[in-house]
Request: fold
Amino acid sequence: MKETLIETFSPEETFEVGRKIGEKAYGGMVVTLTGDLGAGKTVFTKGLAAGLGITELVNSPTFTILQIYEGGRYPFYHFDVYRIGDISEMEEIGYEDCFYGEGVCLVEWADLIEEILPEHFLHVTISTDMERGFYYRTIRLEEK
Reply:
């Protein structure tokens, strides 16, 4: 398992990390994303979408669970599974078509659905440290 740590000091830098990953993304790629509320998950996600060439507004699908964007190099499937009560809800959404299709998936709160994640994915953890500054973030990338 390969691990990379990146420090950012502004939302713009966090966005750029996501953008660079989006530029290198490939069809069938799954990215899982964890971090506290307010850690910068949405900023990172917007960057990833921009790296895929998506120009429409990207928001967290907290209440819809899945948001689909089709304007980039690959379809982009943005899941927020925070409100998933039972894994069967993922089946109802048709997650397999997203996880194993030609698009790029980003799954927030993926630890809640670990048992259905594919064998290989990129796990991203965003952490804050207020002692280092309000906008300081540590972004951990782990290839699993």
